[in-house]
Amino acid sequence: MVVPYAFSIAFSLICIVSLYLGVYTLYMNPKSAANRIFLALTIALFIWSFGFAMAISAEDMSTCLFWRRFAAIGWGTFFAALLHFVITLTGRHRLLDRWWKYVLLYLPAAVCLSVFTYIPGLNTQQFRLEQTPLGWVNVSIKNHWDWFFIAYYAGYTAFGIYLIWKWRKSESSRNVRKQASIIIRAFLAALVLGGFTESVVNNVFSVRIPQMAPIIMLIPVMAVSYAMQKYGFLDTRRYVTDSLLFSEQIRKRVVNYLASFLLASSVLNVVIMYFIDGNMNLAQILFFSGFLIVAGVIFELIERIGKSNRYKDFIYAGLFFILIPILTLNYIKYASVTVWAHTFIFLIISIGMVSRVIQVSVAASIILTHMAVFYLKPELTLKLDASDHVGRIALSSLAIWIALFIMNVNS
Question: Given this structure, which CATH class describes domain 2-240?
Answer without folding.
Answer: mainly alpha
